Amino acid sequence: MQRLSSRKLKTKTGCLTCVARRKKCDEAPSRCGNCTRLDIACVWRERIQSDGSRAITSTNLRAKKGLILHATITNGYPPFRSELEKRLTTEAPGALSALVSCMASPDFLKTSLFGTFSTESRVVRHALVAFTAHTSALRSEDSYRLSLRSYQDCIVELRASLPRGVHRATEQSHALVAVMFLGLLEGLQIGDSRNAVMHFDMCQKLLSARLSVEGVPKDPALVKVYRLAAECIMYNLATLLPFDTRLDRAVEDWGSTFECLFPANDHELSPFLGGFHDVYRLMMNISIYLRTFQPGNSEQHEPLIESRNSNQRLAMLQKEFLMLENNIPASYDRVLGEERTRLYVAKRKISVLALKIHLSKIAEPTILASDVVLQQSVQEALDILRHEDLREPGNPALRWPLTILACAADNDVDLQLVIAKMKEFELILDPSNAFKLRCSYMFLQQWAKGVIRTDLKTPIDILLEPLCPAKPLTEP
């Protein structure tokens, strides 16, 4: 048998990928036929030379002619820059396993396409490595530097590729996953709400574009990736908006675009939220309503949009709330384990009660926390908090609902109970969510003691505008 090393080359020109694979290259512009057929990176000498590095090819490999540098291609895929990057990329399928709800199907714990995408695409690898290196339990100076460098490299490549348009379906999926990981990094760890919302806003546009073209894909692995992305978008846009006052525009509602990904109200289709995506959709629509119509702005003599439109939009929100108020997913009855089922039913109930309080305040901006209707919802939620341990490590589902309950507390006893629960949840959350929760209860504590001066009359008036203290508060 003829050895591979002595086999005659079919080409000495063309792209570096074909030269390395010993294939004849048609030298088509931008991407040759072989690389297009195999859907792999097409690397050209001109591109490598413009970067100032030297490639090992059949035309420049000559004996004793200077130093031999590292090969620039690895079977057509981008090479790893370090052993740490290689290890993190190898572990890519389980990158989001810590965020998967205990109610979800175990299939979501491993996402094989994350590994495939990070191998094929530099932009996905940069984003995934930036996320996993920063969130890794064994953090070090090297992992921090790798995370920062990968984040910057990903942003540079996205800025270069997105403006000119990403036309191929695979490239669109790559960009979608990359932006999702950047948003998760900002939302969970770094804590810059503005950047996180912008990332997920772009992620929403990319996913909506994919679904509008092809609908729900037939590939189950790709459907899983799209569902993960959709839930990341829904949860983060819904829960980041109420805490951020710096956004200069309202993030658009995703409408019915994502509904095709969730054909049934089933916990197995909701890996992150445990069947709560309808709650977070309403939560986000409420935030958009507040930004659009500003019901708490007493100095606004003329509304931004006609009062009729405001009333119609509010009626739609109230109708949406009535649909989910008593709609505990029937799939919870099929879940093994009574404790697990009770945990999620109780969480959903508290979220619904908090949204009921929020909508009541929006419908009647002058209503006080002492109102009987509001206090019925508050006391029902507090009764659940007294008797149920709803803590689930890493799950920030109740961060904003607890803040709503704290704002609606009518006396110091109820307020201290909610704050005590908020402190318990703070210990099990990621740095960004824990910080937002801490800012909320410290703001209310200092307001109650007269330390903070504000134009708002009562704490419940906070629900008419976003709550995000401009500067971190310190313990009184």
From TrEMBL:
Native source species: Cercospora kikuchii
InterPro entries, alphabetized: Fun_TF, Zn2-C6_fun-type_DNA-bd_sf, Zn2Cys6_DnaBD
Keywords linked to the UniProt accession: Nucleus
Gene Ontology MF terms: DNA-binding transcription factor activity, RNA polymerase II-specific; zinc ion binding
Membrane-spanning ranges: none
GO cellular component terms, A-Z: nucleus
N-terminal signal peptide: none
Source species taxonomy: Eukaryota, Fungi, Dikarya, Ascomycota, Pezizomycotina
Sequence ranges assigned to domain Zn(2)-C6 fungal-type in this UniProt record: 14-44
Name of this protein: Zn(2)-C6 fungal-type domain-containing protein
